[in-house]
Structures are given as C-alpha cells and as structure tokens.
Amino acid sequence: MTTSDxxxxxxxxxxxxxxxxxxxxxxxxxxxxxxxxxxHHQRTRSKESMxxxxxxxxxxxxxxxxxxxNSSRGLICLAYDQRNHGTRTVNxxxxxxxxxxxxxxxxxxxxxxxxxxxxQSLLIDLVxxxxxxxxxxxxxxxxxxxxxxxGHSAWQTLFKDKRVRASVAVIGCPDYMExxxxxARLSRLQTWGVKDNGAKFLGSRDFPxxxxxxxxKGDPKGLLFGAEPIEGGDRxxxxxxxxxxxxxxxxxxxxxxxxxxxxxxxxxxxxLVPMRCSEPFMSWLKGAVGQAPPSEEQRILVDERIYEGxxxxxxxxxxxxxxxxxxxxxxxxxxxxxxxxxxxxxHIIPAKV
Length: 353
Prior knowledge:
Layout (H helix, E strand, L loop, with lengths): L9 E5 L2 E6 L10 E8 L10 H12 L10 E8 L24 H27 L6 E10 L1 H12 L3 E7 L5 H11 L22 H10 L1 H6 L14 H18 L3 E7 L7 H16 L10 E7 L8 H16 L11 E2 L2 E2 L5
Helix pairs in contact: 2-3
C-alpha cells in the first residue's frame, strides 16, 4: 500500500494502554454488531508497525459487498504496544536475546508474551465500554493476528480466552520451551549441555523452574504435555496410561479451542523461529483435530501453511492468506455456536458449557 492509502488511527487510552483503533469512522449507522481484530506486533517493533495490515484488511472488508452500508456488522482493528516496547519501554536492553547480551532472555520474553495475553483479556473485558458506552453497538467477536513475538502471544491468547474465536499466528511458536531450548543450543549457552543434548537446560539458571511451571499454565504445548517431549503424539494402540493421557489432552484441547479457527503461517527458511520447534506440536494438533470431535462439540479448524523460500518475515503471501482467513471468520461469525458473545436480535445466547 502507498502511504496515502494508510488509515490514520484514533489513539485512545484503554485501561492505561495507548491503543491505536482503526476503522471507527468506517462503521455504518446500521452496524450494531462489531468484530474486533487485535494486532500483536513483533519484538523490537511497536504498535505503529501494524498500521499497514490494519489498513489493508479494513479497506478489503469495506470495499466488499458483504459490508455494504446497510450491513449490521462492522470491523475495527486495534493495536497496542507489547510490554517494554514503544510507549511502554522500560529498558530496551531486556528486549534483546542471549546473543545480544541479555542473560534473562527466556524470562524477559516470556514476560512480554504472557503479559500481552493478560493485557489482551483485560482489554476485551473493557473495550466495548470505552468505544460504545451508550450501548448503541456491541462487540460480538474477537480475533487476533500476531507476528513473531506477537505470533507467540496470539497462540497463547487463543488457548486462554474463549472470546477469541480465531487467530493467525505468523512466524510464531506454540512451544516456548522447545523454542528457547533450540535458541540456547544455537547461542552455545553453558546450561545447554552438548553431551546430554540439553537435557538439563529446562530448570537451569537460563530457564528457571518457575518459568517451566509458568509454561505449563500458559503455553499451548505446556498446557497439554507439560515439560515432556511430544515424541510423535498419541498413537492408537498405546498402553492404557498413554491412552488415558491422550483422552485428557483431547478434553483440554476442546475445552480451550472448541469451535475456533487458527491459521499458522511459517517461513520455510525461518532461522529465528524455525519450523522444527513447532513441528512436533503441530503434527499432534492436526492429528487431534482430525479425529471425530466429542459429541455435540464443534470441530476445530487448523490451517498450517508453509511458505517456500520465506525466512523470518510476514511475507506478501502470508498477508494475503491472513486477510482472507480473517474475513472468512467474520463472515461465518453466526455459525460459531460456541462463541460466548454470540447474539441473536440483541440478546446474548449462552454458549454450551
């Protein structure tokens, strides 16, 4: 897009966070239902870096026939700074990696990722009251797109908040422990032992036990597998204990993701967040959602796309696919019967518990 095509956001203080809101002026008077698309930016960037994507998806949406002037649904985009970024910067050094001389890289980055997740849920709680205090519009759908650091937080937000119904994780990773272990190996940290293939790294000073426990509570892979390796996932014919564990994981998966959609965009040549760190979890996830869902539960849609020749970049192809995926989620909002914000004729319809 050219500079002249970029939308100018309204920057509002929401819950103490400077938040760029795109598309408020584009809402038609008839748009009583609004979808919020939350945009999570990369490490070392700021909320302003999401301006081009926000402008593109909104111009695409409002130029389509489905969003005509008499449509009852509108779309807005919102972006705010990750912790220790942009307007929230405390110490730029602590956004750096081990190679940048930051000995607390694993803990610092987890604080940014998981902190973004906490901030996101709080903003979802309050955003309707800030933007539409008169009650003339209601927010009935929340979506998230994140890039790199934002891709990690997009994964975690999808698993944490039932109100987030679709997510695009761009060059992000659903397995924080594996990502940091791989990065420790490449950084040649002393705590990643060559002789034991890094067996003692988790729980070391560079990845403390408290961080391992935090991952078990907030990271997708940690929630489902703890600190243990996936090792091929849950195969039919496993021993009884393994089968029981597989059943527990399936239950947790549907409790967290029932009826949701996720698009995963990975660069084939990404060296910073390499595909190998996500592959075991993605292989298991695709197999798990491919099975018949428990009775009366909606399927989970997982769409993984690998972009040939692309490194650690939000490529043109990824942008195109992300726009299409998210707008399809907006179009099919009424089909999502598990959405806790689902409304019919102005009334909230309780989702199945």
